[in-house]
């Protein structure tokens, strides 16, 4: 399989879509990307599993990362790609092979960029976090991700999206006393007691804080409930699972403490938590990028790999620009920039990632949410 990087971004997107790359099966596409990039004499190319890193080495004072994942969700009868009334359809066309096409075109054509550029193409973004190729790169070769600014080429409709939310899941336990349902007065029904938890959620007033000039909207919601022993037993426990999406002005630790305060009358177990990333649009590199792109930025509502770069660089600055795929190849990007270190982290030497993925969320092992939690 050969990629023609001189083709239009639209045609290149279609070619990328036609190379199936469901998470865990990215090998053929990674092979094609690696081969195409090795033909570019101005780039140094390295591979880690099915992740490819290509770099310019011009000695510029700044370095920019352009990053994107090459895997897709499972195919659902949407291959090969098709064109209908000027729109390209196919598995991964939007998320995010159109962005990968833009990366590849830039890598091939921009031989003397104003800043050195690192192009990162990584695998397994659409599945559980433990398999994520960007996570693996941060452990195996952290220097390859070192930069002053990063752009993730995901779809957002051509709008700059700044930073990202953090996410937390917790189990809230309502307790009762078990009894036979024929003598219910001898027990206390935990499912009935869970109404109190639901009432707290119903009346909860979510914050809408402004962070670095962008307004985030938080949310605290029940996403699951379980309880019951048997059809003739009064249950002694009912568990309500909640998901808290929090603005990046709160750390993972502060988010957990907030949830415990909200549910002070119940037993709370945090099962999964990952901090977000501040927009940092006041950072010089981010501000220049925004000025060049134009438009009005907005807060990213959701957790994304922007947070990995923020953690990797010990920064408070990360932002995203994304745009939709189409045959005229408008691209999408997301961005982050290196700035000050987190107060609770110790800065390492340039090119190292001492804090990335080190604050493990219970059950996750790295403080990053599972794929379905983004």
Question: What number of domains?
Answer: 2
Which CATH class of the largest domain applies here?
Alpha Beta
**Overall number of strands:** 19
The major β-sheet equals: 9 strands, mixed
Q: Let me know the CATH homologous superfamily of the largest domain.
A: Zn peptidases
End-to-end separation:
32 Å
Oligomer status: single chain
Order of helices and strands: HHEEEEEHEHEEEEHHEEEEEHEHEHEE
Report strand %.
15-25%
- Write down the overall geometry: elongated
**Which fold name fills CATH's third level, the topology of the largest domain?**
Aminopeptidase
Q: Helical proportion?
A: 10-25%
How many alpha or pi helices?
9
CATH architecture of the largest domain: 3-Layer(aba) Sandwich
Radius of gyration: 23 Å
What is the topology, as strand order, of the major beta sheet? 1-2-6-3-7-19-18-8-17
Q: Give the class from helix and strand content and strand pairing.
A: alpha+beta
Spans where pLDDT lies below 50 across 5 or more residues: 314-366
**Overall mean confidence score, pLDDT:** 84
What does the model show?
Strand 1 (44-48) and strand 2 form a beta hairpin. Strands 1-2-6-3-7-19-18-8-17 form a nine-stranded mixed β-sheet, with helices on both faces. Strands 13-15-9-16 form a four-stranded antiparallel β-sheet. The protein is 24% helix and 25% strand. Helix 1 (9-18) packs across helix 3 (93-109). The protein is elongated and about 80 Å long. The longest helix is centred in the N-terminal third of the chain and has 17 residues, at 93-109. It folds into two domains: 9-164 and 277-373, Aminopeptidase, CATH 3.40.630; 166-274, 2-Layer Sandwich (Alpha-Beta Plaits). By secondary structure, it is of the alpha+beta class. It starts with 8 loop residues before the first helix and ends in a 37-residue tail after the last strand.
């Amino acid at each position: 399989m050969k990629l023609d990087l001189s083709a239009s971004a639209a045609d290149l997107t279609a070619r990328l879509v036609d190379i199936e790359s469901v998470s865990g099966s990215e090998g053929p596409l990674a092979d094609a990307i690696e081969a195409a990039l090795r033909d570019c004499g101005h780039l140094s190319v390295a591979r880690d599993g099915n992740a490819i890193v290509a770099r310019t080495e011009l000695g510029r004072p700044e370095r920019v990362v352009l990053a994107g994942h090459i895997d897709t969700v499972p195919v659902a009868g949407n291959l090969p790609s098709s064109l209908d009334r000027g729109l390209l359809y196919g598995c991964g066309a939007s998320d995010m092979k159109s962005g990968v096409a833009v990366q590849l075109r830039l890598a091939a054509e921009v031989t003397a960029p104003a800043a050195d550029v690192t192009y990162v193409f990584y695998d397994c973004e659409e599945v559980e976090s433990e398999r994520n190729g960007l996570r693996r790169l941060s452990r195996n070769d952290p220097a390859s991700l070192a930069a002053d600014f990063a752009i993730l080429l995901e779809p957002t409709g051509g709008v700059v999206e700044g930073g990202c939310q953090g996410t937390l899941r917790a189990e809230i336990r309502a307790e009762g006393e078990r009894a036979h349902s024929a003598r219910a007065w001898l027990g206390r029904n935990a499912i009935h007691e869970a109404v109190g938890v639901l009432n707290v959620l119903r009346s909860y007033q979510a914050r809408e804080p402004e962070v670095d000039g962008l307004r985030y909207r938080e949310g605290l919601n029940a996403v699951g409930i379980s309880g019951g022993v048997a059809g003739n037993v009064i249950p002694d426990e009912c568990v309500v699972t909640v998901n808290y999406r929090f603005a990046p002005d709160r750390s993972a630790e502060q988010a957990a403490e907030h949830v415990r305060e909200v549910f002070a009358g119940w037993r709370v177990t945090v099962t999964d938590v990952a901090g977000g990333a501040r927009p940092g649009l006041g950072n010089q590199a981010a501000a220049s990028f925004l000025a060049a792109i134009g438009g009005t930025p907005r807060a990213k509502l959701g957790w994304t790999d922007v947070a990995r770069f923020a953690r990797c660089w010990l920064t408070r600055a990360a932002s995203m620009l994304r745009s939709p795929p189409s045959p005229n190849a408008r691209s999408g990007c997301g961005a982050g920039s290196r700035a000050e270190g987190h107060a609770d982290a110790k800065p390492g030497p340039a090119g190292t990632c001492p804090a990335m993925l080190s604050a493990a969320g219970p059950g996750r092992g790295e403080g990053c949410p599972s794929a379905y939690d983004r």
